[in-house]
Amino acid sequence: MALAVALVVVIITLLSGYFFWAHTWWFPIDISKHGGAIDRQFTLTLIITGIIFVLAQLALAYAVWRYRDRGDGRKARYSHGNNKLEATWTIAATVLFIGLTLMGYHIWAGIHFVGAAPGAMRVEVWGQQFAWYFRYPGPDGQFGPVHIGDKYDPATGKYIDDNKVDDATGNYLGLDRDHDAASKDDIVTATLAVPVNQQVELILRSKDVTHSFFVRELRLKQDLVPGMEIPIHFTATKTGRFEIACAELCGLGHYKMRAFFEVMTEPDYQKWLQNMAAAQ
Amino acid sequence: MASTVLTPTKPAKAGKPGGSGRGSGGFGPGGSGGGGGWEGYRVPSRTYRLGMWFGLGGIVMLFAAFTSAMVVRRGMSFDWASIAVPRILWLNTGVLLASSLTLELSRRALARRSATQFNRWLYATLVLGLAFLGGQLVAWRELASRGVYLATNPSSSFFYVLTAAHGLHLAGGIIALGYVVFRAGSMVRGLTRRTPLDVAAIYWHFMDGLWIYIFFLLTRWS
Amino acid sequence: MAEMQAEIVHRHEAPKAFIWKYIFSLDHKVIGIQYYLLALFSVFVGLTLSILMRIHLVWPQASIPLLDKVSPLGAPGGVISPEYYLSLLTLHGTIMVFFVLTTAPQGGFGNYFLPLQIGAEDMAFPRLNMLSFWTTFAGLAVLMATFFIHDGPPIGGWTSYPPLSAVGGAAGPGMAVGETLWVVSIAIFCVASMLGAINFIATTLDLRARGLSLMKLPLTCWAWFLTAILGLLSFAVLLAAGVLLLLDRTGGTSFFIPGGLLVSDKPILHSGGSPLLWQHLFWFFGHPEVYIAILPGMGVTSHVLSTFARKPIFGYRAMVYAMSAIGVLGFCVWGHHMFVSGMSPYSAFAFSVLTMAIAIPSAIKTFNWIGTLLGAKIRFSTPMLFSIGFVSLFVTGGLSGIFLGQPPLDIYFHDTYFVLAHFHMIMGVASIFGIFTATYFWFPKMFGRMMNETLGKIHFWITFVGVYAIFMPMHYLGLEGNPRRYAEFIDNFLLPLMSVHRFISIAAFITGAAQLIFLFNLIWSLFKGKKATENPWEATTLEWTVPSPPPFDNFAGKHPVIYHGAYEFSVPGAEKDYIMQNSPEEVAADH
Ligand code: HEM
Ligand SMILES: [Cu+2]
Ligand SMILES: [Cu+2]
User: Fold this and answer.
1) Nearest bound ligand to CA C293?
2) Distance from B79 to chain A by nearest Cα, in Å?
3) C17-259+267-273: which CATH topology?
């Protein structure tokens, strides 16, 4: 029995570890400026936890096998522990775990503590039950106001019908192009396209419930919370077509809430944007 | 660390085998209902009080959660409109404070084994408690007559939530006191323990203090 | 103080009438078994739901017999629809977390064995105890009712994030009546757990036998005690959140619902609420909750490892401090569930450091368990196998937490199968292993018969290998970025992963089926098991000093006195290789 337990633990450990080692399943390519650091931090964490994993499981297997009851007269060792050992592994665990997270500080800070550069291109990302829309501000660089749902008037405590959303005419975001000057040149698309090697700031907004913007290759995920405008920035470094998935349960069609994310060369991007503007 | 000898952890029980036996106490009708030989089971009064103190810990967390929700909701909103709390709340506060006083008087009377005094103050407490709840209802009616309902404004939402949650808890206290009234006779005659009264008193005073806190929150904060 | 003493020492007997003896019993042992049966029912429901989910994920078109009878709408012709998948998911999670992992280890075994292990006749407040069980039962009944309403159970997941959970039927099937029932059920459950917790705390503090100082308590009792404190404080917060959510749904308030929403083309008449507020309140409860689920498992694992290793637990004090530290820190780390939620990134980082801090006591416990085995003389009975399995799973599940606790890595892993792997390993399966350990270990005491060892071992082998086969590959799916809570996989990048999903599903079917062996063993042993002696495992704690099963009043009117710590095994110079806690035997090396 002892041998069986030990062997099974060892086999499970080695097999589990093997697939990490062999990269049988692994991250997709990284196409972002900040992603490399995340991948390195992951690798570092994987090495450290991997060593602990293997050592702990092997120690367990060894102890189980080595100290089985062999039916001889030997008694177990009478010991209540060892304070030196306790102190050692407490300190070791503290240094390793806290150290790891501190080492990741600069990555997090780079993504979140500094805003986008002033010249960054801005795109609004809108989530709704089960579709994505993207809004480009157009030549004026301004996003016009949206008219979605009813507006609450704190003065009277009444709700005023303010809804201009109309899927039939393609006005998904409730823009009032006739009255709001800033809305006139806004471009609303179903695909997110950005030029390569340029910083992009996304402003995440939701029309209904919470969604989450997830592009694996960008190493980027951020919730879209209704009532909030959450900024997030990145720089894509490789061209290509990637998938956007929704990563926060948003209802029955959560699994099919997807869109494409395209990184283009600057000329391609300009051409694309013009086509989109023409189609509004 | 090396102690082989027994260390009695419960001096109260040391000379009292059977101190912990199945029994009745502050949490429900004693003796009845369960059937079987539960009469012999009784834990020390102290345990009931301890249980009550921890129960209050849970209630503190409940209201702490409401409070933090209120702080957050108020801090982030553009639509918060303070409401003037109904004047009658001051009166209610006085009534509730008085009830704590009468409850203490009744406990003193019980210690003196003065049945009439004990009953008088106990009933006074009950009446004051009910009067408080009635007063809270009046306050709600007043707000309603001003057109301020649960959903009118976040501040009114919190007003109703906090007062209702407190009122429900106080109603529980009234039921507990009702049980004490039911048991009063035998308590005075020393046939049953006064634990239910002691425990209910802790609860009652706590509800009193909790109300002061809520009142402060509602007048100063919302 | 004019306090009446109980002058006469009664030896009280059990009530005769069936209803008082078995239904509305005040006896902690009966209530413990009631909790256990409730959890057993729930776990098989939860398991069935997970099997249905795994079927749907790999064979979306499969028609499941009889399922259309349960839900003609959700599974027309027995084929699970994507929205019904989410209903199953929500109930699976809710049932498992609340009605299995919060009931069996604490309400079940805690109720039964805390009084026995501390030498008390019962819990401090038997009526309160009965009340908390029946309240829990009511909560379960309300939750189960969601299966039988028109549009089925809610689809909001066990975390029930608003606005999805707050805006009513417009948000999807099950989000009208179903979601309301869900909130009510959880609120009831909160009340029940708080009532139960008070009882555990008072009992542990006040009803210990003479000589049983806190530092002589079995680690199981420490675990139940700390769990009770966590439960008392955290369920109160969930209760508050539940009340507010219910008001948002039915009272027109706007605690969690912001303004200007348009759900299914329907303007939502709310304004100014904060979805993140719910997340904060929920996870303030939710993180302690995972410790509520796992602490009793840690306790019983420590207990059983020491007993079957025939060796004192390594670092008893360290274990107690570690569990206490976990209890305290457990309230300070809730933000690690919200790294990508839009919460302030500065607080995210603070939560990250605290999260790593809570990993330290967890690591300490693991090392102590392994330390207990070094130099031991291990007996491989089924309970021991499951507690060895617990340690292995705890290591695996704990280490993936080191990834998730780092915000930059959680950006990628949040809400992917990596998280699913992590929490199933550490909270789900590890706790279940704790329950199995406890069942095999204490069954003889509870029912007077041994469980069948052969069946037990077969159960262990399939389950241990099975859970690794199910949940280990989920890490790999997480690496590939596979989002969780997906009813179907249609994204291009998910299609190549279907073979992994198929593997997981098949492993799940086998593992699920193996649980029937356990059920069979349980029932069979109840009637046909070998008669158990008073102390079949040669353990040291007080429950093993009374007959199996124990008499109605536990110690037959006697009052045990404690002389020794809970884990005095293989003491040099002692007669046997264990010393009962209440044995007056003097030993030089005692400690
Ligand atoms: C054979 C055992 C089990 C299997 C095969 C299984 C399978 C699953 C699956 C397929 C999901 C849904 C994944 C998704 O679509 O996101 C899930 C979710 C979940 N499971 Fe399990 N599970 C098992 C045992 C457990 C146990 C023991 C627990 C106890 C904690 C548990 C708790 C949960 C929770 C909390 C969720 C999340 C529900 C949600 O997203 O709201 N599961 N499980
Ligand atoms: Cu979604
Ligand atoms: Cu957590």
Assistant:
1) 1
2) 5
3) Cytochrome C Oxidase; Chain A (1.20.210)
Ligand 1 site residues (CB inside 6 A) read C 47, 50, 53-54, 89-90, 92-93, 96-97, 101, 157-159, 420, 424, 427-429, 432, 470, 484-486, 508, 511-512
pLDDT tens-digit readout, C511-562: 999 999 999 999 999 999 999 999 999 999 999 999 999 998 899 888 899 9
Q: Can you give the residue range of the structural domain that contains B189?
A: 46-73+87-220
CA distances from C480 to A263, C410, C425, C477, C514 (A): 20, 14, 19, 5, 30
Q: What is the pLDDT of residues C349-374, one digit of tens each?
A: 999 999 999 999 999 999 999 999 99
Which among B214, B216, B211, B205 is positioned nearest to B99, based on CA atoms?
B205
Alpha-carbon dihedral of residues C63, C67, C73, C76, nearest 10 degrees?
Answer: 20
Please check whether residue B96 lies inside any domain of the structure: yes
Q: Ligand 1 mean position to C516 CA, how many Å?
A: 19
Decide if B198 is inside a domain.
Answer: yes
Residues of chain A in contact with residue B78, where contact means CB-CB under 8 angstroms, are 154
Average pLDDT of the residues in C462-485 = 97
For CATH 1.20.210.10, list the domain ranges present in chain C.
17-259+267-273, 304-522
Please indicate, yes or no, whether residues A125 and A254 belong to a single structural domain of this protein.
yes
**How far, in Å, is the centroid of ligand 3 from the Cα of B46?**
36
E strand spans, A60-165: 121-128, 131-136, 150-153, 158-161
pLDDT value of residue B18: 35
Tell me the residue range of the domain where A258 lies. 121-143+187-278
Q: Residue A21 pLDDT > 60, yes or no?
A: yes
Indicate if A134 and A25 belong to the same structural domain. Answer: no
Ligand 1 pocket mutation pick from C89, C426, C500 by most atoms within 8 angstroms of CB: C89
Rounded to an integer, what distance in angstroms lies between the CA atom of residue C257 and that of residue A131? 21
pLDDT tens digits, one per residue of A107-144: 999 999 999 999 899 999 999 999 999 999 999 999 99
Contacts of C102 (CB under 8 A, 6+ apart): C189, C193, C231, C289, C292, C293
B29 pLDDT band, cuts 50/70/90, is very low
- A232 CB within 8 Å of a chain C CB: no
Please, what CATH class does the domain formed by C304-522 belong to?
mainly alpha
The CATH number assigned to the domain holding A196 equals 2.60.40.420
